[in-house]
Design a protein that fits this description.
The protein is mostly helical. It has a domain at 74-120. The chain has six helices and four strands, in the order H-E-E-E-H-H-E-H-H-H. It has a two-stranded parallel sheet with strand order 1-4. It has a two-stranded antiparallel sheet with strand order 2-3. Strand 2 and strand 3 form a beta hairpin. The protein is elongated and about 140 Å long.
């Protein structure tokens, strides 16, 4: 054991690391200048925010069944528009089935490519009133008079009678065919007697 009066021998752990403050201040200044330059460059390239139109309904019919039931030869080198599936010309992509195609054309990416946001335009009171007027006029123009209703009922009755008559005719034809089959099955009675068949206990003569 070391004596208390003697000098302690061992590791000197009283040393603390000292930093050069001027050097690190210079580095921080350079980093800030660099970030400012990059920020200015990004803001120039980004440009002003794009104002998108509100969402509106489609004015065309979505074609889902024009190629239904048709066969097509698919090659890996064919252009996208001629590959198997549904091709979106706006996004230049191919979707494999109709459900996913509908999801795609109703989705955010496709609507953004068309220049629309996913927000719906808020209708004013005048627009709602005008819409009601248009629907009322359409209803009046499409409503039926009593004469139209009588004609429709008469036409429906005639169609029903025609169906019943066709059913009766089919039943008569079936009965005739059944009777003809029974006659051919019975065969010639002389041949049956010659072979020893007198009958099978039926009451028919």
């Amino acid at each position: 054991m070391a004596q208390p009066g003697n000098n302690a021998v061992g590791v000197d752990n009283t040393y603390r690391r000292k930093f050069n403050r001027e050097e690190y201040a210079e580095r921080a200044r350079e980093r800030e200048e660099k970030e400012d330059e990059e920020g200015r460059f990004k803001s120039k390239s980004k440009g002003p925010p794009v104002q998108r139109k509100p969402l509106k309904h489609r004015d065309y019919e979505v074609d889902l069944d024009s190629r239904l039931g048709k066969t097509q030869v698919v090659t890996p080198i064919a252009p996208l528009s001629q590959q198997a599936g549904y091709y979106c010309a706006v996004c230049e992509c191919v979707v494999k089935d109709s459900a996913n195609y509908l999801d795609h054309i109703n989705g955010k990416k496709h609507q953004r490519a068309l220049g629309m946001s996913m927000r719906v335009e808020r209708a004013s009171l005048e627009q709602v009133q005008n819409r009601f007027e248009i629907l009322k006029k359409r209803k009046v123009a499409g409503s039926f008079t009593e004469q139209d209703l009588d004609e429709r009922i008469l036409k429906q009755q005639q169609e029903e009678e025609e169906r019943k008559r066709q059913r009766r005719e089919r039943k008569k034809e079936k009965k005739k065919e059944k009777a003809a089959e029974e006659e051919t099955e019975e065969g010639d009675p002389d041949v049956a007697a010659l072979m020893g068949f007198g009958g099978f206990g039926s009451s028919k003569k």
